[in-house]
């Protein structure tokens, strides 16, 4: 998937999650540890959202791309982000949103 297509899908997911009651804070947050696709809030909880897109469910599907190594990178990136914002004690969770063939699936507290 091209970077441009990835950003389009991330924006669509951001709007979809906003319709579900989440509030967007940031997108495409970069650090030396990696990237956070979306940072949102639900109540007082920070929600780090990893977006995975597949045109078709081949290669094990979008969820299969969230490997233990990827989870580790996301946790490190989120910890860095929390520290930078001064929010180290704020409750947070990691969600995954998969988009496959037009179907959106939202996995809350994915890891």
UniProtKB/TrEMBL annotation:
<dbReference type="InterPro" id="IPR011335">
    <property type="entry name" value="Restrct_endonuc-II-like"/>
</dbReference>
<dbReference type="InterPro" id="IPR011856">
    <property type="entry name" value="tRNA_endonuc-like_dom_sf"/>
</dbReference>
<dbReference type="GO" id="GO:0003676">
    <property type="term" value="F:nucleic acid binding"/>
</dbReference>
<dbReference type="InterPro" id="IPR003509">
    <property type="entry name" value="UPF0102_YraN-like"/>
</dbReference>
<dbReference type="Pfam" id="PF02021">
    <property type="entry name" value="UPF0102"/>
</dbReference>
<comment type="similarity">
    <text>Belongs to the UPF0102 family.</text>
</comment>
<protein>
    <recommendedName>
        <fullName>UPF0102 protein FCL40_13985</fullName>
    </recommendedName>
</protein>
């Amino acid at each position: 998937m091209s970077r441009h297509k990835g950003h389009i899908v991330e924006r669509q997911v951001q709007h979809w999650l906003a319709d579900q009651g989440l509030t967007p804070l940031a997108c495409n947050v970069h650090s030396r540890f990696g990237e956070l696709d979306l940072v949102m809030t639900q109540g007082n909880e920070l929600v780090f959202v990893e977006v995975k897109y597949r045109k078709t469910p081949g290669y094990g599907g979008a969820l299969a791309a969230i490997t233990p190594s990827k989870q580790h990178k996301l946790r490190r990136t989120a910890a860095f982000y929390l520290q930078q914002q001064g929010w180290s004690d704020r409750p947070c969770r990691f969600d995954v949103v998969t988009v496959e063939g037009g179907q959106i699936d939202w996995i809350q507290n994915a890891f």
